[in-house]
Design goal:
This is Formate hydrogenlyase transcriptional activator FlhA. Keywords: ATP-binding, DNA-binding, Nucleotide-binding, Transcription, Transcription regulation. Pfam families: AAA_lid_14, GAF, HTH_8, Sigma54_activat. The protein is of the alpha+beta class. The chain is built from 23 helices and 19 strands. It folds into four domains: 168 residues, Beta-Lactamase (2-Layer Sandwich); 156 residues, 2-Layer Sandwich (Beta-Lactamase); 178 residues, Rossmann fold (3-Layer(aba) Sandwich); 57 residues, Arc Repressor Mutant, subunit A. It has a six-stranded antiparallel beta sheet. A six-stranded antiparallel beta sheet has the order 9-8-7-12-11-10, sandwiched between helices. Strands 14-15-18-13-19 form a five-stranded parallel beta sheet. A hairpin with a 7-residue loop joins β7 and β8. The longest helix has 52 residues. The radius of gyration is 49 Å and the shape is rod-shaped. The protein starts with a helix and ends in a 5-residue tail after the last helix.
Length: 704
């Protein structure tokens, strides 16, 4: 009866002990409970746990985890302990039996334990395996400070205790693994939400400026990083230049944004672009890795050391640039955050590629629209070429010789001459004879452009740069890239705009109105003016340095009054051109009319002559040009105007019939037998076609 009572009492004690052990939630609380039990029983003074790495299935003996309580009753734990793994617990893998050691023998056999300094002073040591349903978990170590060795009864009692402890250890490990998995899932869920939010935020932005601002805002919100920059390579192949879009949060949630340019050569950005690998480094205040970082560090952290994280932006086989993050708290760049930031960089690269493609399409669309506008203007101006320059007088031949010389070069040309002398024709001839003939020639009349709009028209403007700037606009310099820009009446350019024009002539780069991005162009400049620029320089109305830049190769076009020998040819050419445009037939110009026109002063030059011819064609009722000279506003060179009766008489009334016959034959030979038309014999002789045919019939000359 007494034995049964003791057995029930023992069973009740084991059940209560098992319940107590299984209620423990952590290894520390389990150790405290085991320590109380063995101390109450007088079996041991301290308890520690050495557990194998249950995650390393292939080789669980490489590392172990240690759990103990120090003399001050504070928990002690070590993970991934390799020296301890080679101690007594290693023998349990091959022989899971209880081990008993004296202190001196244990340290002699396992000297690495002394180096670890994990155990308080002890005399006896007992290691009991922890066997559970899942297998060998590790061992439970018991130490005592008195000289009494562990007896067989002590070992049996500790073995029974460790059977219960193994179940508790297994439960705690399962619980910790479950909590770890839950934590991992929560982190993955949070990371997924961040990626979804960033993806939705950036992929909806097609404007590059808006995109970079949204990227900075989102990264700052989720990671509390105060300095975010995006560095994008130039589209040009092998370009060493890049655009920097920097956002600095100097105050909480107050973004300060700026755009700048940088040279990639030798920079950390270039290193990351080439390697395609993330770079994490510390930057001391004395180090300078670019102008935007210098400004950033002065604003945010001054003399503090910063951690810089640079991630490549790659899409497909293209390296678009880098995402650059800076912070003084390096813990922002932990392993988990860096993994997410790398995934964010991949999505940013897609968004940047979309924005760049959209920007290129938009730019091409605007360029085509503006090209269409300018090409329409040029088509409407008859698109003359070198062959439309009429006149072979010595002075004009000298001008054309200069045109041939300068056309093959790229130097600036300044065309000087009075109003109406044909400066635009000379400019177009220079373009058409040069190497840029296959590119466009863009022109601008500076006198016809309001001063307030001239800068925008020349250099373009950004959206919102001024009232009414509802969209980005390309200027004429961009449209003339790789071609020629002709500035007519260049002397009318306002003095305050001249330095910007000088800069583009020197550097071949400029900024749009309201923008800070440098745009590089390759433009050949041709300027023209009817004003005395040298005198304007003396009067401080025109910059001397700009004048010298424009006046590299001056060409002076002579006025029409200085080349009267060209007037007959000009009259014939203009009559034919204007008559064709008006769908009229003018096949004869009286010789006397040509002589009269050649003796006039023509203060308006070729333009005035063209206007006179146009009016004459309009008023002519027959096929012979009828020029009403008395309506001109300056004195006529001759006292009388030849009457129509005389105009229709023979070319030279004083000539004999034989001389007249020879004259007509000579002219027919020169015109290859052509009688009618602007280059026919009738026009040269100043006769109507029918009159000439009648005289030829009378003189026995056969018409071809």
């Amino acid at each position: 009866m007494q034995s049964a009572t003791m057995s029930i009492t023992k069973h009740k004690g084991l059940l209560e002990l098992t319940r107590t052990l299984l209620l423990q939630q952590t290894m520390t609380s389990l150790l405290e409970t085991l320590t109380q039990v063995v101390q109450a029983a007088g079996i041991a003074d301290a308890v520690t746990l050495v557990l194998f790495d249950n995650q390393n299935i292939d080789n669980p003996s490489e590392r172990v985890s240690f759990y103990g309580i120090d003399p001050h009753h504070q928990p002690v734990s070590y993970e991934d302990e390799t020296l301890l793994a080679t101690g007594p617990v290693h023998a349990l893998l091959s022989n899971p039996k209880t081990q008993v050691w004296r202190s001196d023998a244990l340290h002699l056999h396992f000297p690495q334990l002394s180096a670890l300094n994990l155990y308080p002073a002890f005399t006896g040591y007992c290691l009991v395996p922890l066997l559970a349903s899942s297998g060998l978990l590790g061992g439970c170590e018991f130490t005592r400070q008195n000289d009494t060795p562990f007896s067989v009864e002590d070992k049996n009692g500790l073995h029974e205790l460790c059977m219960l402890a193994a179940i508790a250890v297994e439960q705690i490990q399962l619980r910790e693994n479950a909590l770890f998995q839950q934590s991992q899932l929560r982190h993955e869920r949070d990371d997924f939400r961040i990626l979804v939010d960033i993806t939705n935020a950036v992929l909806s932005k097609l404007d590059l400026d808006e995109l970079t601002g949204e990227i900075a805002k989102t990264i700052h919100h989720f990671f509390h990083i105060n300095a975010i920059s995006i560095v994008l390579c130039d589209a040009a192949k092998d370009s060493e230049q890049a655009s920097v879009y920097a956002t600095h949060y100097v105050q909480t949630h107050v973004a300060e944004r700026e755009q700048s340019r940088m040279t990639l050569s030798g920079s950390l950005e270039q290193q990351v672009m080439k390697s395609g690998e993330m770079l994490l480094t510390n930057v001391r205040p004395s180090e300078d890795f670019g102008s935007d970082e210098s400004t950033l560090f002065q604003l945010l952290w001054r003399d503090q050391t910063k951690t810089l994280c640079i991630l490549p932006l790659r899409f497909g086989h293209k390296t678009l640039g880098v995402l650059k993050l800076a912070q003084c708290q390096p813990d922002n760049f932990n392993t988990a955050n860096l993994r997410v930031l790398q995934q964010i960089a991949e999505r940013i690269a897609i968004a940047v590629d979309n924005a760049l493609a959209y920007q290129e399409i938009k730019s091409l669309k605007e360029k085509l629209q503006h090209e269409n506008l300018y090409l329409t203007e040029q088509i409407n101006s008859n698109n003359p070429d070198f062959s439309d320059i009429v006149g072979r007088s010595p002075s004009m031949s000298a001008v054309l010789k200069q045109v041939e010389i300068v056309a093959k070069s790229d130097c600036s040309v300044l065309i000087l001459g009075e109003t109406g002398t044909g400066k635009e024709l000379i400019a177009r001839a220079i373009h058409n004879l040069g190497d840029r003939r296959d590119q466009r020639m863009v022109k601008m009349n500076c006198a016809a452009m309001p001063a307030g709009l001239m800068e925008s028209d020349l250099f373009g403007h950004e959206k919102g740069s001024f009232t009414g700037a509802t969209a980005q606009r390309m200027g004429r310099f961009e449209l003339a890239d790789q071609g020629t820009l002709f500035l007519d009446e260049v002397g009318e350019i306002p003095l305050e705009l001249q330095p910007k024009l000088l800069r583009i002539l020197q550097e071949q780069e400029f900024e749009r109105v309201g923008g800070n991005k440098l745009i590089s162009v390759n433009v050949r400049m041709i300027a023209a003016t009817n004003r005395d620029l040298r005198q304007m320089v003396a009067d401080k109305e025109f910059r001397s340095d700009l004048y010298y830049r424009l006046n590299v190769f001056p060409i002076v076009i002579p006025p029409l009054r200085e080349r009267p020998e060209d007037i007959p040819q000009l009259v014939k050419f203009l009559t034919y051109k204007i008559a064709k445009r008006m769908k009229r037939t003018i096949d004869s110009i009286p010789a006397e009319t040509l002589r009269l026109l050649s003796r006039m002063p023509w203060p308006g030059n070729v333009r005035e002559l063209e206007n006179v011819i146009e009016r004459a064609v309009l008023l002519t009722r027959g096929t012979v040009l009828d020029l009403q000279l008395p309506e001109l506003n300056y004195p006529l060179p001759m006292a009388q105007v030849v009457s129509p009766a005389v105009r229709e008489s023979a070319p030279a009334p004083q000539l004999s019939e034989e001389d007249e016959r020879e004259r007509i034959l000579q002219v027919l030979k020169e015109t290859n037998g052509v009688v009618a038309g602007p280059r026919g014999a009738a026009q040269r002789l100043g006769l109507k076609r029918t009159t000439l045919l009648s005289r030829m019939k009378k003189l026995g000359i056969a018409a071809r």
